[in-house]
Amino acid sequence: MIGLSGFQIEAEERDMLMHPLVGGVVLFTRNYESIEQLEALADELHRLRDPHLLIAVDHEGGRVQRFRHDFTVLPAIGQLGKVYKQDHKKAQRLSQLSGWLMAAEVRAVGIDFSFAPVLDLDKGLSQIISDRAFGADPEIVADLARCYIKGMHEAGMAATGKHFPGHGSVVADSHLALPVDDRRYEDIQLDDLIPFERLADSGMEAMMIAHVLYENIDPQLAGFSRFWIQDVLRQRLGFQGLIFSDDLEMEGASIAGSIPERADLAIAAGCDVVLVCQTQQAMASTLDGMAQKHDPASQLRMIRMHGRGAPNRVQLQSSGQWQQAVEQVLGYDEPHTLDLI
Question: Is 306 assigned a catalytic role?
Fold first, then answer.
């Protein structure tokens, strides 16, 4: 999956989008000028190929929401964890409603899916995770995530749990540095892995792998590790869905060599789809340097990520269901001050 540089598809990008190794596009704030422009861009992307390219976005709420103007500015899901401590049934209901609202608005403009929900634990260590997680208790995180995914499915969106096997216990931000986790496997298994294990066989369509080095478990970053992807995620947890790498241009992945080398390592370890979505140079060099490999099983897993039927934006926003959802979801919000764009 690649990225675009602006509000429209440039000629060089159009050529890359037609490359047989490209299966989709990740959109960012840099690709959003207006809701009408976004709808037109999604429509153009889908008309390029048949079956159409997947369109994805990070649209979690709180600090990580790529589109804001003309969209509901969603609370961070960490607020749901706070509600859970007071009234767990209310939190479950609001989590399902939040998943539906997020997915319904994204689907209404033609985007297939958001990389959500976050299954990491907020241990008070990682600023890059923090309130992007439902909380610190793995059972609560799993419970709220299951409800959130149910709402996503109701809106016609596939779910992607991230960042396996858990990013919340390291301080470093993998966008900027290499996070190193020195815990034993047994410690991670009894803590961070629980939400991923609970949801691995509960209808979640995809997972994204963390750029974290668990140095006392495997010498490879998780995203390049056959141990984490094949032995743990596929075999021990029994996950049969799609596996995404995190963005290979992130600094945390840099120890694995050039970006084409990172792509080959991720695919060899068991990732179905690799993300290279920041610079045209990196995208082009990866497409030129990657081995031409097509996996029928990966293709079948990708089909499940296509968005399913959704009302258009006008129909959605005129519905009583949407109006009530906005009121209830915004009702549990607290001010958030930092945006990641």
Answer: no
